[in-house]
Known about the structure:
This protein is α/β, with parallel strands linked by helices. The chain has 3 domains: 3-111 and 287-301, 3-Layer(aba) Sandwich (Rossmann fold); 116-198, NadA-like (Rossmann fold, 3-Layer(aba) Sandwich), CATH 3.40.50.10800; 201-278, 3-Layer(aba) Sandwich (Rossmann fold). Helices cover 45% and strands 14% of the residues. The protein has helices at residues 3-17, 26-43, 55-58, 68-75, 89-98, 121-130, 144-148, 159-165, 177-184, 206-215, 229-234, 241-251, 262-269, 292-301, 310-325, and strands at 45-50, 64-66, 82-86, 103-105, 136-139, 152-154, 170-174, 190-193, 220-223, 237-238, 255-259, 276-278. The chain has a 4-stranded parallel beta sheet with strand order 2-1-3-4, with helices on both faces. Helix 2 packs parallel to helix 14 and helix 4 packs parallel to helix 5. The protein is globular, with a radius of gyration of 20 Å. The mean pLDDT is 97. Bound molecules: 1,3-dihydroxyacetonephosphate and iron/sulfur cluster.
Amino acid sequence: xxxxxxxxxxxxLYSRVRSVIPPIEWPVFAEDIDAILxxxxxxxxxxxxxxYQTPEIFHCVAxxxxxxxxxxxxxxxxxxxxxxxxxxxxxxxxxKLLNPGKTVLIPDAAAGCSLAESITAADVRLMRARHPxxxxxxxxxxxxxxxxxxxxCCTSANAKRVVESLGVPEVIMLPDxxxxxxxxxxxxxxxxxxxxxxxxxxRFTPAEVRALRTDHPGVTILAHxxxxxxxxxxxxxxxxxxxxxxxxxxxxxxRVVLLTECSMADNVSVGHPDVxxxxxxNLCPHMKRITLPKIRHALETMTQVVTIDPALASRARAAVxxxxxx
Length: 326
Ligand code: 13P
Ligand code: SF4
């Protein structure tokens, strides 16, 4: 195929992302994008992409985008036979839990998460033994094994609502210590936390927030609730990745910084050319394992297929479904 025909065909897609992808990089992306769009039709597949995926994935090949909660919800409405999860492994597992009859592919099965890796099913059993009768609320950033030991799941978008929905004075909230502390600051429910941290968000500091305000007068600072509570206390708004994106659309701040993963600002800035995005950010090495060539390879070879031990799948699914019902 002559390169000019390919570039002409993909020109409408490039016009979406030209503010964040230099023209010299586009021909490399265009070839994989073109192939992926054809493969999606051939395989009857859809691509679900998290807000931290790079713009050429997020804006050019994804069918559904969003935060963890949106991806979990949307996964259930998908008609296609194949779901490719452009995100990390726990997200692909959640999609599989909610769609046991569909083929769920993850382009790189090594795309993990420091929170999911911070806790095992045995740890949850230990917490239950230490706090008899106290319900376990587990962040979706966890393995299916850990979800199976839990009463209910939550995401950063619904954590407070889920905790309060249980109608109890005390809950165990796993595995993100900072999310647990940030929720504890907003509710009367006593929260027993686990010492897991997100390796991306734990690196933001209150000193960094103060320096941002000095260097960029008038900047609006949005923080993800996986950030330490001292960082959240200095921010103007705290919310999930979807909440941050909605805030920018609603409030249209002249200048904003998103204290979260780097691709988030790129993806949101595409729809808001009038907003000045100040960009200190931290990269998630796990999210960055997902690339266009790996998505193409996944669809060409129908690998890597996500499977969940049936012995624990029904218990893990129940915890996710209880969350979705809240
Ligand atoms: P969201 O649910 O806010 O998209 O967060 C997922 C995540 O992994 C944040 O680090
Ligand atoms: Fe996990 Fe943090 Fe990466 Fe999100 S950003 S996937 S919580 S390591």
